[in-house]
C-alpha cells in the first residue's frame, strides 16, 4: 500500500510520516466490503493498512451512538458518538492501537508521542499492553498532577523545555534516527484508526452532518477518509457534510478557511478553556483545509462561554465531557442546519480528565435528623 | 413478577425494597432464551423485571472482555471484564439504567441514592437523562472536589451529617413516604441490571472462576443471579465459582464467612485505600453469605499493599482502575487455582475517579536541545 501526500500528490513507497514538502502523508484509499464480526477491526478488515494485532486489543472502538434531545429545539435529529468510553477514555485509542500494531510488526522496541493529554495517556497505556517501551514527550507547562494519568501506565514521561511546536518535528526526525517510532497526532496509521468512527456511524445511520472538534486535524482527516472510502466502496450513497469545530481562542484552521487561504498560519496567543484542541499550528491544518475545499465542507469556531454552556447541556443528557468535546454542540447553535437533518457530534474525551475546570455545583448541608425536610 | 426474600423466603407482591425481616428482597428467577440484538438489554430481553427504556439508554453494558497475560505465571487464563468504559465509567450504570426504567414507568418524578462515589455520579447522570430530579445523599466526609463529578450532571447533592449506615435505611423509609424512589446499592432492579455482566461473559467464554470486588454485595448478587438464571435456562452447562473479594481493612463478609456465621457484623474502624468497597456493614452482606454457602463459593480479603501492586500490574496491561477494582487481581495470587482454569476479574471503575491516590511516576526534565540524548 502506497502513501501519498494529500497536498503535493507525491507518492511514497517507504513508510514515511511526512512528505518532503512538509505535509503529512496518508495511505491511498482502501475499498472493500464489510464482514460479520464483534469488533470494528474485524467488520472492516479490508480497510486497515496493517493487520490489527487483536490479541493486544483493549476493546477500543465500537462506542455507543447516543440519541440526544439537544437537537429538538433546532429541529435536527442529533446523535452523540461517545468516544469517552474507550479504554483510556478518549478517541485516541483507536489510532494508537493501529499505529502500535504497525510498530510491533515493524520490529520497533520503543515508541513515542508528543502530547500532554489524551494521546499521551493512550500511547503510554498501549505501549505497556504491547510490551513496548514508551517515551512520552510533554510540554514544560504540563502539571505533575495531570501527568499521573500518563505515567501510571509505565511510559517514560519526559518534560521538554523549549518550543512545543518544534518538538513535534524534532521528535519525528530524531525518532527515525534512533529507532523510536513516534505516533504523533497525524501519524498515518493513527489517522487510519479513526476511520472506525465513520464506519460505526454508517452502520447505524446515514448522517447529513458530522461535527468534529478539531485541533491537529488528525481526527477530522480520519473520519473524512472513512466516509470517503465507504462511498467509493459503494457502501453508502452520500457523503455527509463534515464540519470542523474550533475554539475561537485558537482557530487557525477556521481563520484560514474564512480568509480563503490554502495554508494555515500560526495562531498567536492561543487562549481557550478547550485545552485539548488548543494547537496553534496544527500539523494537519493544510490537509484539513484541502478536504474542506474539495468537498464543500466547512469550519465553525465557538466561544469559551458557548463551550461551557454546551458542556453543561451534555451533562444534562448524562454525558460528562471535557470542554473540547462540547464544541460540536456549541457549534450546533451557530449553524443553520435544515430541519430534520441527521447530525452526529463527536464526544472526544471524558470530563474526568478535566475535572478541575468542571463547574462546581451547589451542595446542600443537612443534619440526619432533618432529612425529611431536606428531601421535600 | 414476585419479589422474594433470599433469607427468610417470604414473597412480596408489592414492589418493596426490603423484607420485614430487614433483608433485601430480590426478583424471582427468570428463565428465557437469547435473541439477536445490538445491546445486552435486547439480547437477554426475557430476563429483565421491567422493560428497559432503551430510548434513554446511554449505551451502558456491552463492555470488553480483555484477555490478560497477568495469569500466565499462575498458570490460569485470565480475562478482565472492563466496566470502566460504561457511560459514567463504572458498573453502576447497568443497575441505574434498569432502576431508572422502573422509576419512570412507575410514575416517580424524583429519584435518590446514598453514595459518595460511582453510584452517586451514575444516578445523577441517568436522572438527568431520563428527565427526573435526583437527590444524592452523600456522607459528611465527601470532599467538594470529589462531588464535582456528581453535581455536574445536575442532581441535587445533599451532604448529610450523621451516621452514614443509618442514612441508608432512613432514605428508603423517607423515600417511600415522600414519593422519592431511592435506588441504593441493593435495590432489586439495580441487582437485575448487573446480571448483564454474567450474560456477556457467558456469550464469550465459560469461566471457571469469577472474582468480584465486594462492598455492599449488590454486584456479587447480580452476577450470581445472572449465571444461575442462565444455568436454569439451560444456556450454560456449569455454574462458575464466584469469589467475593474484600479489602482486609474492611472485610465484614469475609470475616463472617471464615467464622462460619450466617450474619455479618459491623466492621469497626474500617481502613483501606479501596474506598469504593469500604462499606463496614454491607446491606446485602447476609444475602452474599447465603449464596456462598449454598453454592460452595468463597471470599478472599487482600491487603492495601497487594491492592496497590495489582493496580500497578493492571496499568501495565493498559487498564487504569480505581484501587477497589484491582482487588480481584490481588486475590488471584492468594488463591491456589487449578492450572488452565479460566478466570474473570471484574474491573469495576475507572482510575480517573481516584487520580489523587494514583502513584506518581517519575518525570524526566529535558531541554529541547538535549532531546537526542534524552531519547537514547
Automatic annotation (TrEMBL), chains A, B:
Residues 57-349 form the Tryptophan synthase beta chain-like PALP domain. The modification N6-(pyridoxal phosphate)lysine is found at residue 92. GO terms for molecular function: L-serine ammonia-lyase activity; threonine deaminase activity; threonine synthase activity. Keywords: Lyase, Pyridoxal phosphate. Its cofactor is pyridoxal 5'-phosphate. It is an enzyme of class 4 (lyase). NCBIfam families: thrC. This is Threonine synthase.
Amino acid at each position: 500500500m502506497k502513501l501519498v501526500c494529500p497536498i503535493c500528490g507525491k507518492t511514497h513507497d517507504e513508510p514515511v510520516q511526512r512528505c518532503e514538502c512538509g505535509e503529512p502523508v496518508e495511505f491511498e484509499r482502501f475499498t472493500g466490503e464489510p464482514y460479520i464480526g464483534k469488533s470494528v477491526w474485524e467488520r472492516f478488515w479490508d480497510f486497515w493498512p496493517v493487520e490489527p494485532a487483536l490479541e493486544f486489543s483493549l476493546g477500543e472502538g465500537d462506542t455507543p451512538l447516543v440519541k440526544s434531545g439537544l437537537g429538538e429545539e433546532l429541529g435536527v435529529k442529533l446523535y452523540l458518538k461517545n468516544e469517552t468510553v474507550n479504554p483510556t477514555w478518549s478517541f485516541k485509542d483507536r489510532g494508537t492501537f493501529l499505529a502500535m500494531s504497525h510498530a510491533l510488526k515493524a520490529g520497533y522496541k520503543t515508541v513515542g508521542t508528543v502530547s500532554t493529554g489524551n494521546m499521551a495517556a493512550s500511547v503510554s497505556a498501549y505501549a505497556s499492553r504491547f510490551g513496548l517501551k514508551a517515551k512520552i514527550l510533554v510540554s514544560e507547562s504540563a502539571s505533575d498532577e495531570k501527568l499521573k494519568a500518563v505515567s501510571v501506565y509505565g511510559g517514560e514521561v519526559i518534560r521538554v523545555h523549549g518550543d512545543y511546536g518544534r518538538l513535534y518535528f524534532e521528535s519525528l526526525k530524531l525518532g527515525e534516527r534512533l529507532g523510536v517510532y513516534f505516533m504523533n497526532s497525524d501519524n498515518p496509521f493513527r489517522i487510519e484508526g479513526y476511520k472506525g468512527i465513520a464506519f460505526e456511524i454508517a452502520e447505524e445511520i446515514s448522517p447529513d452532518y458530522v461535527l468534529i472538534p478539531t485541533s491537529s486535524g488528525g481526527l477530522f482527516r480520519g473520519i473524512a477518509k472513512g466516509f470517503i472510502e465507504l462511498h467509493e466502496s459503494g457502501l453508502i450513497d452520500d457523503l455527509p457534510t463534515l464540519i470542523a469545530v474550533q475554539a475561537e481562542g485558537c482557530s487557525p484552521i477556521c481563520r484560514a478557511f474564512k480568509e480563503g487561504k490554502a495554508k494555515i498560519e500560526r495562531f498567536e496567543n492561543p487562549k481557550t478553556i478547550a485545552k485539548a484542541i488548543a494547537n496553534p499550528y496544527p500539523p494537519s491544518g493544510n490537509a484539513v483545509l484541502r478536504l474542506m475545499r474539495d468537498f464543500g465542507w466547512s469550519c465553525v469556531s465557538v466561544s469559551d462561554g458557548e463551550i461551557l454552556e454546551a458542556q453543561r447541556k451534555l451533562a444534562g443528557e448524562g454525558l460528562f465531557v471535557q470542554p473540547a468535546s462540547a464544541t460540536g454542540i456549541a457549534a450546533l447553535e451557530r449553524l443553520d442546519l435544515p430541519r430534520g437533518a441527521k447530525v452526529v457530534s463527536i464526544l472526544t474525551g471524558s470530563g474526568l480528565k478535566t475535572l478541575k475546570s468542571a463547574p462546581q455545583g451547589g451542595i446542600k448541608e443537612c443534619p440526619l435528623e432533618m432529612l425529611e425536610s431536606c428531601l421535600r
